[in-house]
Design brief:
The protein has one helix at 60-63; strands at 17-27, 33-37, 45-54, 66-71, 74-78, 86-96, 103-110, 115-119, 128-135, 148-153, 156-160, 168-175, 180-188, 192-196, 206-214, 227-232, 235-239, 247-255, 261-270, 276-280, 290-294, 303-304, 318-323, 326-330, 339-347. By secondary structure, the protein is mostly beta strands. The strands form eight sheets. Strands 19, 21, 22 and 25 form a four-stranded antiparallel β-sheet that branches. Strands 1-6-3 form a three-stranded antiparallel β-sheet, with no helix packed on it.
Length: 352
């Protein structure tokens, strides 16, 4: 695990963040879980991660990974089944200062029905948003593999899926009074859908978080996995290459108002036959105070633009920060399909 040296700003700034930590762990072949040692305050910290499935296949029970801050000294990742292949995970943990009014709630919920409500401690609907990850059984990507999360009241988190399976959802609810949050919903049935933002936002200071579920039963092909991106101060675009399945999106627009800086990368690709890619970042970001967040609402982190019928290992992309001016992407070695994706870099230096 990497520890950072705080970057100090003038006292007039609102300094919510203590530090950003990053690490990389592997769930080994034939294993279901892996842990890493950390040192944080759990109810002041939240987790973001991506991963590559380093083996051929398309079984969600092998490739869908959950993550949680288990306690102050442990972060844990797991999957439902132990496939004969590695899952390589890159994670970031953001910790708020003890003096900050920000809080993070954590929990785990088995989905016994298509809609499950979780009672949470009261939060502000204009300052809070959820992050979730989950495990699921099954051997083909379909409606069971996409779960949505919505804060419906100040004390309720609602988790929904079209069809239940062996779902266990790990959830986090982040409430930061110095961040402004607004919720939007939208449905995509074709290959592109725009969501109008009102009021407008400052792109370079706005982070977008989203989850989605399908509205009908059936398979989801590789080209049908939607991506989302903030394309302007007033618009989010949801896109994909194949109009397979209808998805219902729940989107949280988080404005930092100078407390974090965001770059929005749209339509990035890893070419057919390639297992790595890179993206230039401008302006430079902090190596120690930044995270990368995928613009995808669920188990897969990319959209298969070469063979829209194929899902599987080509869609699972691990991101990392190569340098202050470049991010890198990795996926299973030499897959035949090109993959398209969006992501955001979020730099918290202004709040540390």
């Amino acid at each position: 695990m990497t520890y950072v040296i705080p970057f100090k700003l003038p006292a007039a700034a609102v300094l919510d963040i203590k530090a950003v930590y990053t690490g990389e762990k592997t769930i080994a072949a034939l294993s279901k879980t892996i842990t890493d040692s950390i040192s944080v305050t759990k109810n002041k910290s939240f987790l973001v991660f991506q991963y590559e499935a380093d083996f051929s296949g398309d079984d969600p029970e092998d490739m869908t990974v959950w993550g949680e801050i288990t306690n102050n000294t442990t972060v844990t990742f797991g999957r439902q089944d132990s496939a004969n292949g590695d899952i390589i995970i890159r994670y970031w943990i953001v910790e708020f200062k003890a003096a900050s009014a920000a809080t993070v709630q954590h929990g785990s919920k088995a989905l016994a029905s298509a809609t499950e409500n979780v009672t949470i401690s009261a939060v502000s609907l204009t300052n809070a948003f959820p992050l979730i990850s989950w495990e699921v059984d099954g051997t083909n990507l379909n409606d069971k593999d996409f779960v949505s999360a919505e804060i419906t009241t100040t004390t309720n988190l609602q988790l929904q899926v079209k069809r239940t399976s062996v779902h266990t959802v790990k959830w986090q609810v982040i409430n930061c009074p110095n961040w402004t949050v607004k919720k939007y919903t939208s449905t995509i049935s074709g290959t592109s859908q725009n969501v109008t933002l009102s009021p407008t936002v400052t792109q370079a200071e706005t982070w977008i978080v989203a989850t989605a579920r399908t509205t009908t039963e059936g398979p989801v092909d590789g080209g049908g996995v939607p991506q989302f991106n903030l394309t302007s101060s007033s618009n989010i675009n949801i896109y994909r290459d194949d109009a397979n399945q209808t998805f219902y999106f729940i989107i949280y627009v988080i404005e930092g108002a100078g407390k974090f800086a965001v770059q929005h990368q749209n339509g990035e690709t890893i070419a057919s036959g390639a297992s790595t890619g890179s993206t230039s970042l401008s302006p430079n970001i902090s190596l120690t105070n930044s995270l990368l967040y995928m613009g995808c609402p669920g188990v897969c982190q990319g959209n298969n633009e070469t063979n829209t019928s194929a899902a599987g290992e080509c869609l699972y992309i691990k991101h990392k920060i190569n340098s202050v001016s470049q991010s890198g992407q990795e996926r299973y070695s030499n897959p035949a399909a090109a993959v398209r994706f969006s992501f955001q870099s979020v730099d918290f230096s202004a709040a540390i």
